[in-house]
Amino acid sequence: MMRDRTGGMWPWLLQRITAVLLVGGLAVHFTATHFAVERPLTFEVVRERLLSPAWVWFDLLLLGLALYHGLNGLHGVLLDHGIGPAVRRGSAWTLGALGVATFVVGAWILAPFAGVSP
Q1: For 57-68, what is the mean pLDDT?
Q2: Quick one: 59 exposed, middle or buried, by C-beta within 10 A (0-12, 13-18, 19+)?
Q3: For residue 111, which of 103, 68, 95 has the smallest C-alpha distance?
Q4: Does residue 6 register a pLDDT over 70?
Q5: Which residues in 74-91 are b (16+ Cβ under 10 Å) and which e?
Q6: Closest listed residue to residue 2, CA positions, set 12, 68, 16
Q7: Are 15 and 76 in contact (CB under 8 A)?
Q8: Average pLDDT, the chain
Q9: Of 30-39, 61-70, 103-112, where does mean pLDDT reach its minimum?
Q10: What is the spatial distance between Cα 79 and Cα 83, in angstroms, rounded to a whole number?
């Protein structure tokens, strides 16, 4: 495996793994949301699906994969522009904190569907 001079091997590899998992996850999501439900698609239909803990976990996994893939890609774009080591560390911490905060908000929104009070 090639090693990126500025980003490292693991972010590069995880970017590819999350891409493959996202394609599969999005296929499941679109099938469950748009093709395997009664019409019209309403909040009640989505709420019924989310009453199953498996779907809540699936949505959390999809959210985590999308956040990592997107923010890691954004960090890669910043690295491609030749930012210095201090900015590289700062952007990595900032994007990581943004990802964690966004995931926490997403989990907080999904919590009532799983029967957990936030």
Answers
A1: 97
A2: buried
A3: 103
A4: no
A5: ebeebbeeeeeeeebeeb
A6: 12
A7: yes
A8: 89
A9: 30-39
A10: 6
